Amino acid sequence: MKLFLAKRSFTSKGILLCLVLGLSPLAQASNSTSNKTLIDDGSIATQYEIGAMYAAGEKVPQDYAKAAQWFHKAADQGDAVAQWNLGVFYDSGLGGEQNSSKAFKWYKKAANQGDMMSQYFLGAMYERGRGTEQDDDQAYKWYQKTAVQIKATIQNNLNYYYDHETAIDQANIKALDLLKKSANQNNLGVRYLKGHGVPQDYKKAFELLQKSAIQNNRYSQRNMGMLYMGGDGVDQDREQAMKWFHKACGNDDPMSCDLYEALFLMDYEVIASLVMSLES
Questions:
Q1: What average pLDDT does the structure give for the chain?
Q2: Which of 35, 121, 269, 278 lies most in the core, judged by the most C-beta atoms within 10 Å?
C-alpha cells in the first residue's frame, strides 16, 4: 500500500481528484505551527500538529514511530483526521507493525464522523476482506457515502456557475459508477465465469477478476488461480496458478494456502477434493 497521509485542511478540487484516483494529500504541519517548537498542552490540535511534524520531517527529524504516538493521542480524543492518519499507519505498517484489524478500527471511527477518505478506505477494506469479514454490501454502503460527499464538495465549493446541476450530477454519477464497479468486479466476474444471469464469457470473467485481483481482492486472486489451474478461458499455467494462490494465501485466504500447497506437491487428489468443496 502506498502511504498518503491527510492534511487537516486541503482544497476541494484536491479532494475530488484524490478520491477519483484513490489517493489523499500528504500530511504536513500547518504554516502557523511548523516554524516553532510545539509543547504538548493536551489539546487535539497541538497533538495532531506534533504528529504531522514528525511524519513530514518538518523542523524535527522524520520519525514515523513518534508521529504514530502523537496521532494516537489526538485520535483517542476523537479527532477524525488523526484517526484517519492512524489507520493509514497501521494499514501500511509505518512506524510499527502492520495491523489490518487496527487500521479498520481507526478508519471506521473516522468514517463514522464523516471523514471522506476514511469512508473510501473502509469500503475498500470491506471489499477485500482486510481487517474484517469481506462484505460487498458494506463496501457499497461506504463507497456510496463517499460519492455523496463528492457531490456535496463540488456543489458547495467549486462554483459551477455554468450548467451547475448537470456538472454536479455527472461528476456524482461517474464517481459512484467507478466505486460500484470496484466493489462488484469479483462477483460480476464469477457471474460471467459460471453464466449466472449473464451469458457465460470466460474472456470477460478473466478481465474482471484480474482487475479485482490486482486491487488485492483475495477471492479474485483465488479465482485467478483457479482459472490458470483449470485452463478455463486461459492457457493452463501451473506457475501462474501458484502465483495467484500464493497472493491470496498472503491475504488470509486459507483455501488458497491449501491449494498452493497441493499444487506445489502436485497432489491432484487433494486438489480435486478442494475444488469440489468450493463448488459445493
A1: 74
A2: 121
Confidence of residue 261 (pLDDT cuts 50, 70, 90): confident
Q: All 3 cell numbers of residue 231?
A: 485452463
Is the separation of the CB atoms in 59 and 28 below 8 Å? no
What are the Cα distances from residue 236, in Å, to 154, 211, 227, 232, 259? Answer: 48, 19, 8, 8, 15
Grid cell for residue 56: 513530514
Predicted local distance difference test score (pLDDT) of residue 22: 36
Cα–Cα distance list, 197 to 124, 189, 201, 226, 266 (Å): 26, 12, 12, 21, 35
The residue among 48, 53, 91 whose CA lies nearest residue 72 is 48
Share above pLDDT 70 across residues of the chain, in percent, rounded to a whole number:
72
Instruction: Tell the residue number behind the cell numbers 488470509, with chain if given.
Output: 252
Q: How far apart are CA 61 and CA 124, in angstroms?
A: 33
Mean pLDDT of 130-155: 78
Q: What is the CA radius of gyration of the chain?
A: 22
What pLDDT, on a 0 to 100 scale, did the predictor assign at position 153? 57
What average pLDDT does the segment 121-137 reach? 88
Quick one: DSSP state of residue 6?
A: P
What letter represents residue 201's amino acid? D
Whether residue 74 contacts residue 68, with contact meaning beta carbons closer than 8 Å, is answered with: no
Its sign, for the CA torsion 214, 216, 218, 220, is negative
Sign, CA torsion 251/245/3/168: negative
- With cell 464469477, the residue in question is 190
Rounded to the nearest angstrom, the gap between the alpha carbon of residue 187 and the centroid of all alpha carbons in its chain is: 17
